[in-house]
Structures are given as structure tokens and as C-alpha cells.
Amino acid sequence: MPYATSIVVAAGSGKRMGTETRKQYLLLDDKPLFIHPLEVMEKQKKITGIILVAPPADLDFCKELIKEYSIKKVLSTVAGGDTRGASVYNGLQAVPEDSEFVVVHDGARPLLSQKILENVLEAAILEGAAIAAVPVKDTIKQVNPEGLVQKTLERSLLWAVQTPQAFRKELLLECYKRALGDKLQGTDDASLLETYGYPITVVMGDYRNMKITTKEDLEYAEYLLKQGGVD
Question: How is domain 4-226 classified at the CATH fold level?
């Protein structure tokens, strides 16, 4: 079985949440948000280690939470950077050399299921790179800076991208190094592979695997858990 390491990114400030507490530490079902995906990674047999990326000032605090919730697979807790991309790159530096694959997941997506995680990782093992995504439900229009509609995009071709995103480690590391040299910032990890011409397999995600950004998102996540959560 290939050796896979997970990078869980929980280094953001969460300003859009509008709370004094950083978003990743807000409680969902009496646990900090970022603990939920750590527990999913902990139970996944294909993942043998976890790298947590956290705010530089919070490393000791996060280590204490990891102990409190008995997350055994965390290999190290590293400081995040000024951007999400910089945080992922910092996490990559801590991935063991013999790890063949990496799975990157947002710490603010607490409702990750084992099924999606396994499907994305299996697709990456076969194809080299895979991401979770869901078809968009709404009509999407391209709008110019003046607020005028330019065109309606073909909805059947549009997918909303999520995490986890899994890659052959050396492939993702190569793209990050090239992007640093080219001074490029991607909106997600897969966008760097797109830039340099690598194919990416799309795996069906789950609409419940949402990123917690606002208080309303957190309330909805609580509701989903009360309804039975995710598999």
C-alpha cells in the first residue's frame, strides 16, 4: 500500500466569521472545527501520518488540543505562512521523504466523510492527482467589474471544488517550487497543476462537505450533525 501523509491546513485568521476566537477553534459538536478532519484522517488506514499547519502563535495550543483529543497520527505541527499556498508549502516541507502521496484538506471543512477521503486518495494513487468536487446547482454568470453580465456559463461543465485534494507528493512539490519561482498564487493546490499542464481527476464530493466561513455555515453544520452527520 502506498505511503500517504495528510496535510490539514488550519492556519487562517477566519476574519469573515466575525468572532474573537479564530474560526478553526470554534466548537462544533463540542469539538474545535479542525479536530473533526483530524479524526477522519486518524481513522483512515491509507494515511499513516498527519501534518497540521497552524498559526505561528498557536502551535503549542494546537499541540495540547491534539493530545486532548488523542490524535496519534500527527507527526508535526508547523507554522502557516502569509497565504494558504505558503501554508501548504510549509506543510510539504514536513512530509516524510518516503511518503509517496499527500492529501491536503482544509481544517475548516469538518464534515469530511471517510468515503470521499478514500475515493480521492484511491484516484490519486491511480492517476497522480485527484480532487473532490460537486456539480454547481445555480446558474453562474460572468460579470465585469462594472457589475454588468458578460455571459452565462454552461452549468453542466461547472463544478464547485472542495478538499480533500490528493497528489503524488513529488508532483505537488514540483509545482509549488515552480510557482514560487514564477511568483504564482493558486486558489487551490490543483490550480498549480493546471497551470503546468498536469491532468487532475475529479471525484464526486458531497454538498455537506462545506467550508465553514460564516456563522450561518456553522449553524448549518450543527444541524447536519444532528440529522446524522456524514458517513
Answer: Spore Coat Polysaccharide Biosynthesis Protein SpsA; Chain A (3.90.550)
